[in-house]
């Protein structure tokens, strides 16, 4: 296949790009051009760039959909990833990325009484992780009980 740009050739490339879930080098090879040729077409043909961006959005939709499926299946890593990236405004951040307050704004720590032991505050992410762990343990216990009965 020729590498000369045409609407028909672009149509074939975009079909390959969609089938390859946005992997440019693979789609380009499928239609007989290089990834560099695709980069040139993107710069020189605005309609090509627009369709290219649409495929990128499609790719993001596919991945995002898979992430939500994993979350619904109870995949803890997927849940934590989502919470860390989408729920930062609710306090779900890594300790490493959290910004420490300025010295003059540092909260005053109350000294524990003789009866209390010092306790670290639990982050929302730690609470979520503990809740998920508890649910999994409950589910495992229910499965074991069913096996014993059955």
Poorly predicted runs are: none
Largest sheet: none
Instruction: Give the ordered list of helices and strands.
Output: HHHHHH
**Can you tell me the number of structural domains?**
2
What secondary-structure arrangement, pairings included, does this model have?
Blueprint: H1 7-19, H2 24-31, H3 35-44, H4 46-72, H5 76-86, H6 124-149
Structural account:
The protein is mainly α and 150 residues long. It has 2 domains: 1-73; 90-98 and 121-150, no CATH class. The protein contains 6 helices and no strands. Helix 3 (35-44) crosses helix 4. The longest helix is centred in the middle third of the chain and has 27 residues, at 46-72. It is elongated. The termini are far apart.
Please outline what is shown here.
The protein is mostly helical and 150 residues long.
Question: Keyphrases for this structure?
Answer:
6 helices, mainly alpha, 150 residues
């Amino acid at each position: 296949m020729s590498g000369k740009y045409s609407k028909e050739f672009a149509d074939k490339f975009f079909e390959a790009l969609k089938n390859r879930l946005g992997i440019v080098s693979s789609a380009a090879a499928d239609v007989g051009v290089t990834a560099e040729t695709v980069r040139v077409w993107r710069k020189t043909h605005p309609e090509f760039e627009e369709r290219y961006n649409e495929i990128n959005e499609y790719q993001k939709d596919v991945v995002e959909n898979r992430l939500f499926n994993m979350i619904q299946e109870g995949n803890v890593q997927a849940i934590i990833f989502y919470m860390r990236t989408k729920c930062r405004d609710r306090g779900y951040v890594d300790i490493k990325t959290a910004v420490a307050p300025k010295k003059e704004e540092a909260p005053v720590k109350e000294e524990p009484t003789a009866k209390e032991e010092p306790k670290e505050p639990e982050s929302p992410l730690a609470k979520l992780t503990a809740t998920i762990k508890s649910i999994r343990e409950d589910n495992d216990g229910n499965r074991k009980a069913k096996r014993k009965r059955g």
